[in-house]
Amino acid sequence: MSTLETQKKTQAAVGFFDRSIRRKRNGIIKKWAGMTLLIGVFMLALLSLFWGVLSRTYQNLPVLGVIVVDFDSPTHEAALIGPAVLRAAESRNNLRPPRLGYIVKPPDEYPDGEMQVRRVVYEQEHWAAISITRNATGRLEDALRSGDESFDPDSLAEIVFAEARDESVTRNYLLPYLDDLKSEVVRGFSEVWIPKAVRDEGLRRNMVRVPLAVNPGFGFRMVNLRPFDVPVAIPAVSVGLLCIPPSPSPAV
Ligand SMILES: *[C@@H]1O[C@H](CO)[C@@H](O)[C@H](O)[C@H]1NC(C)=O
């Protein structure tokens, strides 16, 4: 028998379930099962962290603090805009979660006005802030009385937030709930403002020239202090959530 023939014989092909390779086959199956188990345990462990992070999301939403600073009321004896916002924010606080946590702050705490409020959000003391401009009600009445066609309803109040602080929290939780608040505020305001404007001769005269000063009357300028607009960074920040310990919750 030549060497070549011997080689052919020893290398004859056999099936995976052939008896002659039973020990080898069992070894392979054991290794495969062990590795699969290891991967499974590893994935479940990591996913559990993710589930844990998200399991109490709605109950925890009130920790997302939004301060409300009314610079309007102290400057006008019959202010309407500031009180309308405060009423809506306080009524939201009485709802069961999911809701945001609104914190009404006295305007004297921010002597530098809206810029100082923006700074508080920029420095991440609170997740968002709503400020109502000084004498917003007076400005609205003036615009309607004088028929000021350049009147911009969104110049009377602003909502400040910093999207890049956490883009998924901002987009999934903060902004949708703030939108709800906005509609509630504007609805509540129309109920007091439109009857007042219709009854007052001075206000009624120019309604046709400045319809926006009647409805909506005022709106909110959305100020995003740190936009997050680099989609390619999303994998890094969202996977990073698995490893970064939660930051201490802001004061409610
Ligand atoms: C607020 O606006 C009204 C109407 O323009 C004006 O009469 C009043 O003096 C203003 N108040 C302050 C504190 O600026």
Count the domains: 2
The structure class reads: alpha/beta
Strand tally is 5
CATH class descriptor name of the largest domain: Alpha Beta
CATH architecture of the largest domain: 3-Layer(aba) Sandwich
Walk across the major sheet and give the strand order: 2-1-3-4-5
Element-by-element helix/strand order: HHHEHEHEHEHHEH
Largest sheet geometry: 5 strands, mixed
CA-CA gap between termini: 90 Å
Overall mean pLDDT stands at 89
Helix content: 40-55%
Which descriptor suits the 3D outline?
rod-shaped
Runs in which pLDDT lies below 50 for 5 or more consecutive residues are 242-246
Molecules bound to protein: 2-acetamido-2-deoxy-beta-D-glucopyranose
Number of helices: 9
Quaternary class: single chain
Q: How much is the radius of gyration in Å? A: 31 Å
Q: Strand fraction band?
A: 5-15%
CATH topology of the largest domain: abc type-2 transporter like fold
Topology diagram in text:
Blueprint: H1 3-10, H2 22-54, H3 57-60, E1 65-70, H4 81-93, E2 101-105, H5 114-122, E3 128-132, H6 136-146, E4 157-161, H7 167-199, H8 201-204, E5 221-224, H9 234-240
Parallel strand pairs: 1-2, 1-3, 4-5
Antiparallel strand pairs: 3-4
Helix pairs in contact: 4-7
The structure holds 2-acetamido-2-deoxy-beta-D-glucopyranose.
The site of 2-acetamido-2-deoxy-beta-D-glucopyranose has 6 residues, from helix 6.
Structure report:
- The chain is an alpha/beta fold and 252 residues long.
- It has 2 domains: 17-54; 61-230, abc type-2 transporter like fold (3-Layer(aba) Sandwich), CATH 3.40.1710.
- It is built from 9 helices and 5 strands, in the order H-H-H-E-H-E-H-E-H-E-H-H-E-H.
- It has helices at 3-10, 22-54, 57-60, 81-93, 114-122, 136-146, 167-199, 201-204, 234-240, and strands at residues 65-70, 101-105, 128-132, 157-161, 221-224.
- A 5-stranded mixed β-sheet has the order 2-1-3-4-5, sandwiched between helices.
- Helix 4 crosses helix 7.
- The radius of gyration is 31 Å and the shape is rod-shaped.
- The structure holds 2-acetamido-2-deoxy-beta-D-glucopyranose.
